[in-house]
Design a protein that fits this description.
There is one protein chain. With about 350 residues, the protein is α/β, with parallel strands linked by helices. The chain has a single domain, classed as Nucleoside phosphorylase domain (Rossmann fold). It is about 30% helix and about 20% strand. Strands 1, 2, 3, 4, 5, 6, 7, 8, 9, 10 and 11 form an eleven-stranded mixed beta sheet that branches. Helix 1 runs parallel beside helix 7 and helix 3 crosses helix 6. It is globular, with a radius of gyration of 20 Å. Bound molecules: zinc ion (ZN). Pathway: Amino-acid biosynthesis; L-methionine biosynthesis via salvage pathway; S-methyl-5-thio-alpha-D-ribose 1-phosphate from S-methyl-5'-thioadenosine (phosphorylase route): step 1/1. It is an enzyme of class 2 (transferase). Its EC number is 2.4.2.28.
Length: about 350
């Protein structure tokens, strides 16, 4: 690769991780204030908050559906969200990446969280995934949709294509990837790490929005923040991976531990560095892809909402019941301090 072209590609990839201009949320409307107050009530109404951490709102059958959305590179807000209010939510695991944006979309309650923070301040290795997932659970989300940028390992998964991921290979090594530890050990099943009910909704939404999307695909999660070497890229491609990113695997594992239904849409921005035509990237085209993907990603979420508004009493796949068979530490050996931190994540089973 010519040096100039290498530099151009580097700057494009850098640009790909830069924040898109964020639309101002504007002055909250009366109903926005009402939503925020309701949210505050919902997380604190059942008991007093401790040390600034709101008591969890454990969603119950019949509760209004509240959908969590984790936005990746290029997505720092959610178009179409009404009655919006940013609100800080602390957790026993530290602070999430940013405040959470509460709002309504098509009659459903949405809680949006920019994974890297507004302004893209947290690197993939430094995102507090446990706090992000705990916060979404704590405020009553049951379904969580992740929307993030990725590289592609398949010729047919061209830039602009979406992949509704259903498997992960986790190559990260600097993350906190479990809520459980000495004092309360649990082993959850991750054979099918995403929720197929959410996948169905996203597939239908993509069809309705006219977005080219592949249902199913393996996401290689690398540590980063540097992109792959070519040897790594060829290796991952030989493993049959579809896309590569830096965030989704820890998140999916934690969402599973927290009994949340989780699904991920990976939006292709480039071909990583295995592609023979990689040197011939049109800079403007790649930037257009990222911005276009961010817009399409938000449109996809909006289209998915009607499919998710009526949640079944329990997830057919059992995402919301995984802890029934996962806790292994004998009750008398459980550490109360550890249990306390699990109030949102595992409150359902630990209080049973
Ligand atoms: Zn599920």
């Amino acid at each position: 690769m010519a040096k100039a072209k290498k530099a151009a590609k580097k700057s494009v990839k850098k640009a790909a991780r830069k924040p898109a201009k964020r639309k101002p949320a504007g002055k909250p409307t009366t109903s926005a204030v009402a939503v925020a107050r309701a949210a505050a009530r919902s997380v604190s109404g059942r008991a007093k908050a401790t040390a600034g951490i709101p008591k969890p709102h454990i969603a119950r059958a019949g509760d209004a559906v509240r959908i969590g959305v984790l936005g990746g590179s290029g997505i720092y807000g959610m178009a179409g969200l009404k009655n919006t209010k940013w609100r800080k939510v602390s957790t026993p695991w530290g602070d999430p990446s940013d405040e959470l944006l509460f709002g309504t979309l098509d009659g459903a309650e949405l809680v949006f969280l920019p994974r890297h923070g507004r302004g893209h301040v947290h690197s993939p290795s430094e995102v507090n995934y446990r706090a992000n997932i705990d916060a979404l659970k704590r405020v009553g989300c049951q379904d969580v949709i992740s929307v993030s940028a990725c590289g592609s390992f398949k010729e047919q998964l061209a830039p602009g294509t979406f992949v509704i991921v259903d498997q992960f290979i986790d190559r990260t090594f600097m993350r906190q990837k479990s809520f459980f530890s000495t004092g309360m050990v649990a082993h959850v099943s991750c054979g099918h790490p995403v929720c197929s009910r959410l996948g169905d909704a996203l597939e239908a939404a993509a069809r309705e929005a006219g977005i080219i999307a592949q249902r199913g695909g393996t996401y290689l999660c690398m540590e980063g923040p540097q992109f792959s070497t070519q040897a790594e890229s060829f290796l991952y491609k030989s493993w049959g991976c579809d896309v590569i990113g830096m965030t989704n695997a820890p998140e999916a594992k934690l969402a599973r531990e927290a009994e949340l239904c989780y699904a991920s849409v990976a939006m292709v921005t480039d071909y990583d560095c295995w592609h023979p035509d990689h040197d011939h990237v049109d800079v403007a085209a790649v930037i257009r892809v990222l911005l276009g993907n961010a817009e399409k990603g938000q449109a996809l979420v909006a289209k998915a909402v009607p499919h998710l508004k009526h949640r079944p009493g329990h997830c057919p796949q059992g995402c919301d019941r995984v802890l029934d068979t996962a806790l292994i530490t004998a009750p008398e050996k459980r550490d109360p301090k550890v249990l306390k931190k699990l109030d949102a994540v595992a409150g359902r089973v630990l209080k049973a």
